[in-house]
Write a structure and sequence with these properties.
GO terms for molecular function: FMN binding; oxidoreductase activity. The protein has helices at residues 17-28, 49-53, 58-69, 86-97, 121-133, 163-183, 186-189; strands at residues 3-9, 33-37, 72-77, 107-113, 137-138, 144-146, 153-154, 159-160. It is α/β, with parallel strands linked by helices. The chain is built from seven helices and eight strands; from the N terminus they run βαβααβαβαββββαα. The N and C termini lie close together (5 Å). It is globular. It binds ligand FNR.
Length: 191
């Protein structure tokens, strides 16, 4: 069966480098894998248990359902001050309270992009830590930390131009597909 992955983006700005990567993933996916974007994390209010107890905001429930229905999730995010952006943490905090919790036993791949040298590695390891509590199955390797981003993108045309980065992303998507098949073996029977 074909696999379907969804992407969650941790940056809100129009010219986001991470956004360029997220939007490029569908064309980099191996045969038989479709990738579509989730809604913007900005649609979620600030997490507040009082609000939750009056009923989850519609965008939270919609995203939770889209993640549950997907075979895997790809989180693409900048690093802010050596950690993950507050808007992304807020989204994970909301999603973590929905039952059934959508990230539990979900195949998840992480991607970070930065103009800096180490490509958001620190944020990625903070993100992994939160995903342990959510019982997500986070892909170990290959790790996608796209550093020195200014030499790899055309920021006027909003394109990821670096060919080896594009090929590396394709490899990670294929690895996520392998992980998804290990988690749900029935999916691979009729491939
Ligand atoms: C940054 N940036 C940054 N980069 C990095 O590698 N490590 C870091 O800790 C931080 N910290 C940080 C904090 C804040 C508040 C901002 C706004 C930026 C730089 C960041 O990587 C750069 O702005 C990226 O272009 C942001 O990603 P998008 O929006 O282009 O996807």
């Amino acid at each position: 069966a074909p696999l379907h992955f969804v992407t969650l983006l941790g940056s809100l700005r129009k010219g986001s480098l991470n956004g360029i990567v997220a939007r490029t993933l569908p064309e980099l996916a191996p045969e038989g894998i479709t990738i579509t974007p989730l809604g913007a994390v900005a649609e979620f209010p600030h997490y507040d248990q009082d609000v939750q107890e009056q009923g989850f905001p519609a965008p939270v429930l919609t995203m939770a359902e889209q993640i549950r229905a997907a075979d895997g999730l790809i989180i693409v995010t900048p690093e802010y001050n050596y950690s993950i952006p507050g808007v992304l943490k807020n989204a994970l905090d909301w999603l973590s309270r929905v039952t059934p919790q959508p990230l539990a036993r979900k195949a998840v791949a992480l991607q970070t992009v930065s103009p800096g040298a180490i490509g958001g590695a620190r944020a990625q390891y903070h993100l992994r830590q939160s995903l342990v509590f959510l019982d997500a199955f986070v892909l170990n390797r290959p790790e996608v930390m796209i550093g020195q981003a200014m030499s790899k993108f055309d920021t006027d045309r909003l394109e990821l131009t670096d060919q080896s980065t594009r090929a590396y992303l394709t490899r990670q998507i294929a690895a996520l597909a392998d992980l998804a098949h290990q988690i749900a073996p029935h999916k691979s029977e009729d491939v």
